[in-house]
Write a structure and sequence with these properties.
This protein is of the alpha/beta class. Among the domains are: about 230 residues, TIM Barrel; about 210 residues, P-loop containing nucleotide triphosphate hydrolases (Rossmann fold); about 170 residues, no CATH class. It contains 30 helices and 24 strands. The strands form 5 sheets. Strands 5-4-3-2-1-8-9 form a 7-stranded mixed sheet, with helices on both faces. The chain has a 6-stranded antiparallel sheet with strand order 11-10-13-14-15-16, covered by helices on one side. The two termini are about 30 Å apart.
Length: about 900
C-alpha cells in the first residue's frame, strides 16, 4: 500500500452502550465491553466500513475498548490484520452546545485517551457531570456553555496536548433547533473556524437537491461569508444490532487519520470527499521496481491510484524515474521518441531492469524490461515475451518528457492525430490490422494472378502444340492405307488406347489430389471442442448447450471428411480399371504383333509412337495447368474485391477518426476546434510516382495534370485504382496502356505515348501493386479558441497555449496512466491554475504521475502521493527521502523547502479556503 492519501468509507457518528439513548443491553464489565467491541468491529468489516468516530454524548469512556478491538482484529486464518487494513477508530464526542447546536468533536486517531487526557478534555469543555468508567451510562447531557464554535476551538487549543489535534463538525441540517444553518445564524457560519459539517442518518437525500442549502455549503451566499465547507453523512447508530451502522456513510480521503487529514479533506472536498463509492482509474500502476540504474539507487515505489507528484532538486532522479516507467510501457514504439529514450536507457541502465506492476480492470499485469529482454506476466499466467507495440495496445498510457508537449513536434497535427487515434484505440488498431492483412492478401493474389496469366498463356501454347501433333498423327495414319485392314485398325487404335491410358492417369491424379487435400484438412484443421471458462460467462447452462451443439457439428464434419477419404478408393473403380487395363494389355500384345508384321511401314509406325509419346506428355501438362486454372479462374475478380475492401476499410477508419474528433473537441473544453478533411489527399502518392517515372522534359507537369483531371470526381480512390489497374493489366497482358485506360473509362488529355512507354519501363508489376496499396489520407484543420468569438489557426497559438489545450484533452480522457515530466515547463503561467482544477476531476478517470518544481500543481492539484527525491549521501545517485500527502507535516515542509513557490502555494490554498 502506498503512503499517500486514499479513500475510506466513514461513519463519524457512532454511539456505544454507555450512551443514554442506546437501544440494547448494558455492557459494564471489561469482558462484556470487549465482547461488544469485537462484535462492533466485525460489523464494520461486514459492512465494509473503513473508519468510524466513537461519539457518545460528552463521553469518551468506551473508545479504548473499540480501538483495542480494531488493533487486535484477526483475519479468517487467525493472523493479525495488517495496519493499513485495520478499521480506523477516531476518538470523539457529540457536543450539545449553547450556540445552540449539535456538533461532532473528533480527535486524531492516534491520540492516547488515558484518564488524564480524558479529564483534561472534559475540563476544557466544562463537562462536570460525567460518570465513572465503571458505570453503565454517561451522565446527563447538559448544554455546554459555548456561544460560538470558535470558543470550543479556543478552549481545546489551550490544552497543549490537544492543540491542532482535533476538528469540529457542526450539524448542518437545513433548519431546526440544533443546526448551524438556520435563520439568524449566518454570522456564526461566516466567521466559524469549522471547515466541515455533518448530517444525521437519511437526511442527505432530502438535502442534495435543496438549492438554498447547497448554495450555502458551496460558498455561493455572501451572508454566509461565501464559505464552502465539506460535509459528512452519518448513521447516528445507537443500537446493539448495528442495523443503522454505515447506512449513511461518506468516503473521505487522507494519508493519516488525523484532524489535519480531515481538515485537508474539507479544504479540497471535490478531490477528497465523496457521497457515493469512488470510482478509481481502471488501469493504474501500483508498483515500480528499478534495479541497477546509475542515476537512481535501487528502489521500489508503491504508487497511488490517482495523482502522484515527484518533487526534488535538479538532478535528483525524478525525471529519470518517469523515463524508466515510460520505457517499460513501450514509449519507444513511437519512432520520433525512440532515439532519445534508447540513448538514455543505454547510458544509465546497463544490465539493470525496470519492473512495472499494473492493475487493469482488476487483473495484475507485470512488465519487466531490460536492454536485452522484454516480458509480461498477466494474472497467474507464465512470463511471456512481448514488445513495445503490444504493451502500448494493452496499457494505453500517455507519457511526455520535459517540454515534449510544447518544444517537440512543432507541427502538433502528428501529436493530435496520435491522441485522436488513442481515443478509439481498439477500433483503429483493428482496422489498421485489417488494412495490413488486406495489403498482404493483395500481394498474394496479385502474384497468383500473374501466375494465372502465365498458366493461361502456357495452356494456349500447349493447345496449339497438341493440335499440331494430332494433325501429324492423322496424316501418318493416312499413310498406312496399304496396310491390311486388320493390322491397320490395330495400329490406328494405338492412339485411342493411349488416350484411354491418359484418362485413367488423369483420374488417379485427381483422386490423389483430393485425398491429399482432405488429409491436409484433417491434419491441420481445428476439430477441437469449443473452449470457454464457465467463470467468464453469465448464461452458463445455455453456453454449455450451445457448445455441445457446436461440438456435434464439428464432429460430424470430421466424420464426413474421414468417410470421404475412405471412399477415395472403391472396389467398383478398381474393377472398372482392371477391365480397361486387361483390354489394354491385350491391345498392346496385338499391336506388337501387327507392328512386327508391317516392317515396310516401320519408320511411319516409329514416328507415330514418338508423336504419341510427346502428345501424352503435352496433354498431361495441359490437364495439370487447366486444373490449376480452374482453381484460379476467379483470381482477377478477387483482386478487384480486395481493392474495394481496402477502400471501404479506409473509409471506416476515416469515419472512426471523425467520431473521435468530435469527442476530442469536447474534451478540450472549448479550446480547440478540429475539422477532418475528406479522404482526398494523394500528394504522397503522386510524389512517389513522379520520383519513379519522370523521364522526358515536361513529363512531371503532364503527369500532374493527368492526376488532377483524374481526381476531379467524387470517387477519388476508385478513379485512382482504375489507373493502377490499367497499367497493371497493360504490363501483365502485354497491352498498350493508353488502350486500357480508355477501356476503363479514364480521360487522358495530358500524357503522351512516350510517357506511357516511360511508365512501362520504370515500373514492374510489384511496384504498380505497391502504388495501388497506397491509400489517400485526410488532413486535420486546427483552430485554437481563445473564446467563442476569437479563434486563430492552432499553429499561431503560443506553445504554452497549444500545450495547455493538448493537456486538457489528455486530462479528460479515461485511459491508462498519464505521465508528464514537469508540465509547468510547457504551460503559460495563467494556464497552470486551470490545469490544477482539471487535475482534481481527471484523477478519478485516469492515474496521473507527474514530476514538478511548481508547488501549485502538487498543492492545489491536491496530490494524493508526493514522492520527495534527493541525492544520496555521496551525491552519486538519486533516492526517495519522503512520501505521503500534504496532510503530513513533513511533506508540507518538503514542499515548502524544495518546490518553487511552495509557501505561496499554501498561502493561495489558505486564501482560497479562508483557513
Amino acid at each position: 500500500m502506498d503512503k499517500g492519501a486514499r479513500y475510506f468509507k466513514c461513519d463519524f457518528q457512532v454511539h456505544t452502550p454507555r450512551d443514554l439513548q442506546f437501544s440494547g443491553q448494558d455492557y459494564v464489565s471489561d469482558a462484556d465491553r470487549i465482547a461488544y467491541s469485537e462484535r462492533f468491529i466485525k460489523a464494520c468489516r461486514d459492512k465494509r466500513i473503513d473508519a468510524v468516530a466513537i461519539t457518545d454524548h460528552h463521553d469518551l469512556c468506551f473508545y479504548n475498548y473499540i480501538n483495542d478491538a480494531s488493533n487486535n482484529e484477526k483475519d479468517i486464518h487467525g493472523h493479525p490484520i495488517s495496519e493499513h487494513e485495520r478499521i480506523v477508530v477516531f476518538p470523539g464526542m457529540e457536543l450539545t452546545l449553547d450556540v445552540p447546536c449539535q456538533a461532532l468533536l473528533i480527535f486524531d486517531a492516534d491520540l492516547v485517551i488515558d484518564d488524564e487526557t480524558r479529564i483534561k478534555i472534559y475540563t476544557a469543555l466544562g463537562i462536570s457531570d460525567y460518570t465513572s468508567k465503571s458505570e453503565a451510562k454517561t451522565g446527563p447531557t447538559n448544554r455546554l456553555a459555548f456561544k460560538s464554535i470558535n470558543d470550543v476551538y479556543d478552549a481545546l487549543n489551550g490544552v497543549k496536548e490537544l492543540k491542532g489535534r482535533f476538528i469540529i463538525f457542526p450539524n448542518i441540517k437545513d433548519g431546526g433547533t440544533s443546526t448551524i444553518i438556520r435563520n439568524g445564524f449566518h454570522n456564526e457560519y461566516a466567521k466559524g473556524l469549522f471547515v466541515g459539517g455533518y448530517l444525521d442518518r437519511g437526511l442527505y437525500e432530502s438535502h442534495k437537491n435543496n438549492t438554498g442549502w447547497n448554495n450555502v455549503i458551496e460558498g455561493r451566499v455572501s451572508a454566509y461569508g461565501n464559505r464552502s465547507i465539506g460535509f459528512f453523512q452519518t448513521s447516528d447508530n445507537r443500537t446493539d444490532t448495528f442495523e443503522h451502522l454505515g447506512i449513511s456513510a461518506t468516503w473521505v480521503k487522507w494519508s493519516t487519520p488525523t484532524a489535519e487529514g480531515l481538515r485537508q479533506a474539507c479544504l479540497a472536498k471535490k478531490s477528497r470527499i465523496l457521497q457515493d463509492e469512488p470510482k478509481l482509474p481502471s488501469t493504474r500502476i501500483s508498483e515500480v521496481r528499478i534495479l541497477g540504474s546509475s542515476f537512481l539507487k535501487d528502489l521500489e515505489i508503491k504508487f497511488n491510484p490517482q495523482f502522484n507528484v515527484c518533487i526534488g532538486g535538479r538532478g535528483a532522479g525524478k525525471s529519470s524515474l518517469l523515463q524508466y516507467i515510460s520505457w517499460a510501457l513501450g514509449k519507444d514504439s513511437n519512432e520520433e521518441k525512440k532515439t532519445d529514450l534508447e540513448t538514455f536507457i543505454s547510458n544509465t541502465l546497463g544490465t539493470g531492469t525496470v519492473e512495472v506492476t499494473i492493475i487493469k480492470t482488476g487483473t495484475t499485469h507485470i512488465i519487466r524490461r531490460s536492454i536485452n529482454s522484454y516480458e509480461i506476466k498477466i494474472g497467474n499466467d507464465d512470463w511471456q515475451p512481448t514488445n513495445s507495440q503490444n504493451i502500448v495496445s494493452i496499457i494505453r498510457a500517455d507519457s511526455f518528457a520535459q517540454k515534449e508537449l510544447s518544444k517537440h513536434e512543432k507541427d502538433k497535427t502528428a501529436q493530435l492525430t496520435r491522441i485522436i487515434e488513442n481515443a478509439v484505440n481498439s477500433g483503429v488498431e483493428s482496422i489498421k490490422r485489417q488494412i495490413n492483412e488486406n495489403g498482404n492478401r493483395i500481394k498474394e493474389v496479385a502474384a497468383s494472378y500473374e501466375t494465372y496469366l502465365s498458366n493461361l498463356k502456357s495452356s494456349e501454347d500447349l493447345k496449339t502444340q497438341i493440335e499440331s501433333i494430332e494433325e501429324q498423327i492423322k496424316s501418318l495414319n493416312e499413310q498406312l492405307s496399304e496396310v491390311p485392314s486388320g493390322d491397320q485398325t490395330i495400329i490406328k487404335n494405338n492412339s485411342l488406347v493411349a488416350n484411354e491410358k491418359l484418362i485413367i492417369k488423369s483420374s488417379e491424379a485427381q483422386i490423389a489430389a483430393l485425398f491429399n487435400q482432405i488429409g491436409n484438412i484433417l491434419t491441420n484443421g481445428n476439430f477441437n471442442g469449443l473452449q470457454f471458462d464457465s467463470e467468464n460467462v453469465k448464461n452458463t447452462e445455455e453456453i454449455k448447450k450451445y457448445a455441445a451443439s457446436h461440438d456435434e457439428i464439428v464432429k460430424n464434419i470430421k466424420a464426413a471428411l474421414d468417410d470421404a477419404r475412405n471412399k477415395a478408393s472403391s472396389s467398383v473403380l478398381v474393377a472398372d480399371k482392371k477391365v480397361l487395363t486387361d483390354l489394354h494389355v491385350l491391345h498392346d500384345a496385338e499391336y506388337v504383333e501387327a507392328k512386327g508384321r508391317q516392317t515396310k511401314f516401320e519408320q511411319i509406325i516409329k514416328e507415330l509412337e514418338e508423336l504419341r509419346k510427346r502428345l501424352a506428355v503435352l496433354i498431361e501438362d495441359r490437364n495439370r495447368i487447366l486444373e490449376t486454372l480452374e482453381s484460379e479462374k476467379g483470381v482477377r475478380r478477387n483482386l478487384q474485391k480486395l481493392f474495394y475492401q481496402r477502400h471501404q476499410l479506409n473509409i471506416s477508419l476515416h469515419t472512426l477518426i471523425n467520431s473521435a474528433v468530435a469527442e476530442i473537441c469536447g474534451k478540450s473544453e472549448g479550446s480547440l476546434e478540429i475539422e477532418l478533411t475528406p479522404l482526398d489527399n494523394i500528394e504522397h502518392i503522386v510524389k512517389g510516382f513522379l520520383a519513379k517515372v519522370t523521364g522526358s522534359k515536361g513529363q512531371p507537369a503532364r503527369t500532374q495534370s493527368f492526376f488532377q483531371t483524374l481526381l476531379k470526381g467524387e470517387n477519388t480512390y476508385k478513379e485512382l485504382l482504375k489507373f493502377w489497374f490499367s497499367i497493371y493489366k497493360a504490363q501483365t497482358e502485354k497491352l498498350k496502356i493508353e488502350n486500357i485506360i480508355s477501356e476503363y473509362g479514364l480521360q487522358n488529355a495530358s500524357l503522351l505515348e512516350t510517357d506511357f512507354e516511360r511508365i512501362n519501363e520504370s515500373l514492374n508489376t510489384s511496384a504498380i501493386i505497391d502504388f495501388a496499396l497506397e491509400l489517400p489520407t485526410y488532413d486535420l484543420k486546427l483552430l485554437y479558441c481563445k473564446d467563442p468569438s476569437n479563434k486563430i489557426p492552432f499553429e499561431d497559438a503560443s506553445y504554452g497555449q497549444q500545450a495547455g489545450s493538448i493537456l486538457t484533452i489528455l486530462l479528460n480522457q479515461e485511459f491508462g496512466p498519464l505521465i508528464i515530466d514537469q508540465p509547468e515547463d510547457d504551460l503559460d503561467n495563467k494556464v497552470i491554475h486551470q490545469i490544477t482544477e482539471n487535475i482534481v476531476s481527471a484523477k478519478h478517470k485516469r492515474q496521473l504521475i507527474f514530476s514538478s518544481h511548481n508547488a501549485n500543481i502538487a498543492v492545489n492539484g491536491d496530490a494524493e502521493l508526493i514522492l520527495t527525491f534527493d541525492h544520496n549521501s555521496d551525491k552519486s545517485a538519486g533516492e526517495i527521502i519522503g512520501s505521503g500527502s500534504i496532510d503530513k507535516d513533513e511533506i508540507k515542509l518538503q514542499v515548502k523547502d524544495i518546490m518553487e513557490g511552495g509557501v505561496i502555494a499554501f498561502e493561495m490554498r489558505k486564501t482560497k479556503y479562508d483557513f
